[in-house]
Protein: Vacuolar protein sorting-associated protein 41 homolog
Amino acid sequence: MSEVEDKFQESKSSEESTDDSEEEDSEEEPKLKYERLTNGVTEILQNDAASCMTVHDKFLALGTHFGKVYLLDIQGNVTQKFEISQVKINQISLDESGEHVGICSEDGKVQVVGLYTREGFHENFDCPIKVVALHPQFSKSNNKQFVTGGNKLLLYERNWLNRWKTSILHEGEGTITNIKWRANLIAWANNVGVKIYDISTKQRITNVLRDNAGLRPDMYPCSLCWKDNATLIIGWGSSVMICAVKERDPTEMRDLPSRYVEIVSAFETEFFISGLAPLADQLVTLYYVKENSEHMDEEFRARPRLDIIQPLPENCEEISSDALTVRNFQDNECRDYRLEHSEGESLFYIISPKDIVVAKERDQDDHIDWLLDKKKYEEALMAAEISFKNIKRHDMQKIGMAYINHLVEKGDYDTAARKCQKVLGKNMELWENEVYRFKTIGQLKAISQYLPRGDLRLRPAIYEMILHEFLKTDYEGFATLIREWPGELYNNMTIVQAVNDHLKKDPSNSTLLKTLAELYTYDQRYDRALEIYLRLRHKDVYELIHKHDLFSSIEDKIVLLMDFDKEKAVDMLLDNEDKISTDRVVEELKDRPELLHVYLHKLFKRDHHKGQRFHERQISLYAEYDRPNLLPFLRDSTHCPLEKALEICQQRNFVEETVFLLSRMGNCRQALQMIMEELGNVDKAIEFAKEQDDAELWEDLISYSIDKPPFITGLLNNIGTHVDPILLIHRIKEGMEIPNLRDSLVKILQDYNLQILLREGCKKILVSDSLSLLQKMHRTQSRGVRVDEENICESCHTTILPSDTAQPFSVVVFHCRHMFHKECLPSGAVPGVQFCNICSAKRRGPGSGILEMKK
Structure:
């Protein structure tokens, strides 16, 4: 197809007026694109005018008003020329193979010739022949049939004698203006309506009357088109009908044709129909627009329109509408336009006397063109990515670059930088060009986070340029890049030097210091990084020590680590005792007893024996910094010098700790005395006496409490299970007022009653269990014992049964299942009071009694 010479399509929304400026184009994408058929066609139409055209998948056949027929390739180049007549060619028909052509003209000439053979048919009629149609399979010998239409519809068939036989299929309803032959069905239109004839059954199966009876058939001819072998589309005036040819039920035939027609859709259009063609389940309609139409603006009046519509049962939905600028459209009438289509490629040819326009479905390249024209770059890029195998004129990278340029022009630098990842891919040259462009416009920060840092890497100078830019204006952004970028992307020493230069101006800047520590870490200068982290009290210091095994570097920095985070520091030191010994840690912390206590306390919690040589020092540390844990320490430690601990506790008047130490050293009376005198807590005194379980201690407690009514109450409430309450009650002086005495006595009685109930319950359980076990033992020992040839005597170790069981023999079987020959038992055994020799050697008990078996 040649280049476009004129603009054929002017977008127009069906709901909006086009009075506004051309900038207000419809946002709806057109469905078709248009090109003018040129080359040989241009020259032909300069001196002649097109009257008809037929389309084949391989070539075109064009008829003119001067009686010539041209065969054209699909680019419009003339391949063959026929001079048929001196007047208008009315119709050209091709068979499906494209090997035969049928031609009729206004002077009554009809020719059917083979393009590659010499066979042919020539006939002159005395009236104009308006239409001719070849059998679709005309090239086959048994289908040599064609029809012509003038005043009559004539069928020509070649018989076996190679002669043509003529049959009249229809006449008497005016001039036949259109014929379409599909498979075995012939559809034709005359002044009355449309008929369909079944060539296989030789039956006419329908008659569809025309709706617009007021229109002249010669000025507004009928358009016919077969969508498939059973669907006919009829357009006449402004009416469209879609007819489905269906098989009739055999039970309903009688004298009716075997097929019938059902109108599945019928609707009116705004304009007059000049042509119809199917497009999947939609219709392509060529409209003629009258000058006086009120539906069109002045700019578009009288221009033909090509619409795509969606047929519905009673109306249609407009999908797209294009007004076409064809040559001399002002001089044309409805009958001057024709619409032909190529089924194989969805090509639509709009034929007018002085112009032929080709419409085709827009492909993905056209879709991308439209998106780019509308500046919808992102959608264009997505469309190219999805259909990259089908696009021919576009390149994804070029579309992407156009998108990036558009975003930069808009000032949307962040989006433009983000799209670089997708568009530039692994093209290093493009990447570097974009970086320098962003530098020129002062937007290096925008592109920094999207630079490649994986398999594809730019030159180190690119990354260093961006880092220097951040270092000048944004310390936080600089630190972020250092964290995110691998250290191999740039020259580490160059950046370290740049950071040090900035630190000279601002030596306490924590962001720069932290970043410098990370750079030292990348450079494996861990000691420098550690110093900075400790100075900043940074949380990553512990991770750095562990990761790079820097324990030798922190032996003199233990106090700093403890000051930063005691818990983490102690855990790290204790987890790595093989690298930093306990003695070294204690030595470093000797001047900081509060930190030393934290360390030794955690060490003691992990293992009570590991730091035993420091337990004496820990007593004073606990007393000074952590008294709540002193008593648990004294309880758990077995290496603590008790005298030293007692001395410290007495000096500090730690009563509870002193009581514990006194009791542990065996001085329970003094400990009890301290509880009573210093604490004055009878409950603790009672608890202490219970722990010691010493009668003399109970006596001392009673003696001390006997003149103190509150203490007596406490003793009465708690003493019942350890000491006979009568001893205490007898010693209470008469007339002494004791708080809650009644309640205390009731409690004593209840406790006593509870003890009695417990004893009786235990006795019942014991008796029941004893009886049950005795019954079980009796059942077990009452069972018989199997004696056979496999059993042996436990004394002589021979078979227990004699070889001749008919002879008398005696066997002794004990309940423990040991067996003996009677003569093998000791001779001094008392009959009936024998015991198993084996079991009685161990013990005598149930199961060793005798069970004698005689025969």
About this structure: The first helix runs from residue 40 to 47. Residues 1-25 have pLDDT under 50 and may be disordered. DSSP finds 28 helices and 32 strands in the chain.
